[in-house]
Amino acid sequence: MIAADWYHVYPDSKISARALQLSSALDQLDEEDVEIIEMLARRLAKE
Hints:
The protein is built from three helices and no strands. It is mainly α.
């Protein structure tokens, strides 16, 4: 994680840097809030 935080170097992964940055905040949400965030993200991404 230090390499990611300090140098923005991430291991080969399909998970984007943006998703990794949001992961700790998302992990702190209640399940109901996660559902709202997921719905909003999908709506804005126009999937």
